[in-house]
Structure formats: structure tokens, C-alpha cells
Amino acid sequence: MRAIGVIRKSRRERISREEFEELLRSAGYDVVAVLEQNREEHPKYNIGKGKLEELKELVRELGPDKVVFANRLTPSQAYNLWKELGIEIIDKWQLVLEIFGKRAHSKEAKLQVELASLQYEVPLVKEAIRRIKLGDRAGFKGMGEYQTQQYLKHIRYRMGRIRKELEKVKADREVKRKRREEVGFILLALAGYTNAGKSTLLNALSGEGIEAKNQMFTTLDTTTRRFKLGGKRVLVTDTVGFIDGLPPFIVEAFHSTLEEIVKADIILLVLDVSEPWGEIKRKFLASINVLRELKTLDKPMIVVLNKRDLTTEEDVRDKAMKIGEIIEERGVNVSRVVSISAKLGQLEELYSALEEVILTLPKYGAFEITVGEPEKVPQVMALINAIGEVLNVEYGEETRIEAYIQTGMIKELTRLGVGIRRLNQPNQREGLEDGQ
């Protein structure tokens, strides 16, 4: 498939040509030309009339299969452009959905892509109906008014069915998530711009071989793997990559997947530190905007500067400092900024940051565990080390252990017949409450 790309830049829309061309290639298009214009949006065609004439000439000369706009097109603009150019017109978000359609493998991912596609079609079908009523032959996909009306009803019915199926997936995932918390898992979510190396980091943490290609939107299916951190049991989930200006209809369609970020204990926001600073800044702010939409900016977050092996230590330090300045300026809640190479397994800074942040989580607390039966002490100690950190041990007729543990594991400890009391501060026993 051959395509001509069109980019209109303005004060409000700063579009990366490199990223747009990569999107086109990821969708399988041969990019025969890219037309650029600097101006504010034209209400009828998005681009200016002069640039439209230039585009017409390119279409006649090159004979592409599609014209793809990097800007979001209104239904009216898409129709006007189709009428002028006589070939299929799509915009960036239809292009993204084409990529999603090719990369979706699980039933859930396919449903999410279908829902997003149908949501996108609704205003297009409404525009076709409006134009038919005005006497314009603008049936959707060659359909007449009645067929177009019926198709709109079908879209709405199908969207309702998909939402119900996704609600079931959401409920099943919530049951699994609660069980994971009960058995003492810390939940991490990998978030960040597409192609930042999240899947490679998942592989490095878990020691597994999840598909990790150097292309956009490799991951659409939620993948969760486990690993141990100093004895603590951790689950890390890879999520769909972000992109600048991610529209609400895609966020809504993929909510059941993005909910892994909402429910996580800690967010690992991954950035490609080898990119130019301007790109890093743009992608960092775009990711923060998505996290703001998801209402997750109050969660503990570690910014992970990945691919440090592709640049110098000085460059990494400089970019980390600039990220820190943005964090301070915007008031974003970030616990640490670390640099790693997921490809080379250089994760020391990340492990250190996780150890620190985990012990600050609300689900952790300082407790005194009293063990009356000496033979149970090794079992209790092993369990505590798997879910927390031992602070102090006093052996005697009753062994007293002060430790940070996950509150979700209190039930499992009490099944061993031990006493548990919350400490206001580590190494303090005043103001204790039984069973708290």
C-alpha cells in the first residue's frame, strides 16, 4: 500500500515527522511523499486551499492508495478532502487503529481495538447521514440513507455488547488482582511512550522472552510476570504504549488494559534516554498527560531512563537533571529518576529505588510478631522475608520479631498461630493495638 502523508504544524500542534513516518511504516505503508504546512487549521480542509492544490497534484503524479493526515480530521473535513481528492482519506488515529488491529492477538485486545474503531466511525456515519439529508450523495461506504441509518444502529448495538464483554474481563482481572495482593505480591506497572523499551525491561526483570521488537505498539495484550526483589514477591505488568495526544476514545476502549496502571502499587514510567532531549521532553509530558487522565499521578512513580548503553554517562546525567527540573516545575509526584539498560540487564539503580519505595507503600507497616512455639520461628521468618523486611529479633520463651510486612499477609501469619501488633514506629511498642 502506497501512501502520501500530510502534516500541518501550528502553535498548538507540534507533530514529529519522524514519528509520523514510523507510524506509517509500522502500519505497512510505503511512504511515497510527505507534505508539510505551517498554519492554523482550515475549517473545511484542515490544510489551506493552496496546499490542497499541491496535494491534488501529488495524488495525480504518484497515484497513492491513501492520503494520511497526521492531524485529527473532523468528519466534515474528511468528507471534503475525499470529495476533492477522490481517494481514501484517514487521519493519525485511524492509522494507529490499523496498527492496533494488526498487533492484537488476544480476545481482549481485539475487542478493545474493535470498540475504538467503532467509536471513531460513529461521527463519520452521522456526518454521512447529515449530508444525505442535505441532498448530498454521501452514503457511508456506498450505502444509501436507510442502510447508513441501520449501520449506525448496528454500531451502537455492537459497542454495547463489547463493553459488556470487557466488563467481564475487568471483573475477572479484579479477582486475580485481589488474590495476588492476598498472597503478598507487590504490583508494578510499566508505562510510557511506545517503543521506549518496556517489553525489554519486562524480560530483564522476569528473565523471560516476551516479544520485544524495535517498532511502535508491539504490546497490546497485557502481560504480567513475576520476579523476586530481595525476597519480596513482585508482579510486573507491561501495558500498551502511549502516544502524543492520545484521544479519549482510545483511552476508554483500552481502559481495562490501562487499569493495570490504575491498580498498581508503583508505576515505572519508561523513557528512551538515547533520544534527543526535545523528544524525551515531549514524550515525558505526553505520558504525564495520559497518567493524569487515568488519575494516577498520586501513585508512587519511578522514572526509568532506559537504553543508557546507547549514549554517554554525561548525557544521561544531563537529561536526568532536566527531567528533575520538569518534575519540580510541574509538581509531579516522582519518587526517583534512575538510569538502566534493560537490554544489557543493567538494573542496579532500579532495584535500589524499588527497595526504597516499596517500604513506603500504604500496604506496608511496622509490626511486632510474637511466636510462642520455637519450631515455628524458621517458617515465620521465611514468610516475613518473602513479604517484607525484618527489623529486629528478640529470642526467648516467646520470640519477638519487629518487621515491615504487607498488611494483606496478616491473615496468613495469624494462621500460624502467632500474635501480631502494629507498631507506631519501628522499634517502638507503645500504643499497640491487637490485630491492627
TrEMBL record:
Role description: GTPase that associates with the 50S ribosomal subunit and may have a role during protein synthesis or ribosome biogenesis.
Q: Which Gene3D superfamilies match?
A: 6.10.250.2860, GTPase HflX, N-terminal domain, P-loop containing nucleotide triphosphate hydrolases
A Pfam family of the record is GTP-bdg_N
In terms of superkingdom, the source organism counts as Archaea
Q: Which InterPro entries match?
A: G_HFLX_dom, GTP-bd, GTP-bd_M, GTPase_HflX, GTPase_HflX_N, GTPase_HflX_N_sf, P-loop_NTPase, Small_GTP-bd
Q: Which residues bind GTP?
A: 192-199, 217-221, 238-241, 306-309, 341-343
What the entry lists under SUPFAM superfamilies is as follows: P-loop containing nucleoside triphosphate hydrolases
Location within or outside the cell: Cytoplasm
Tell me the ranges covered by the Hflx-type G domain, including all copies. 186-362
Q: In its UniProt entry, what is this protein called? A: GTPase HflX
Is this entry keyworded Nucleotide-binding?
Answer: yes
What family does the Swiss-Prot or TrEMBL record give for this protein?
A: Belongs to the TRAFAC class OBG-HflX-like GTPase superfamily. HflX GTPase family.
NCBIfam families recorded for this chain?
GTP_HflX (TIGR03156), small_GTP (TIGR00231)
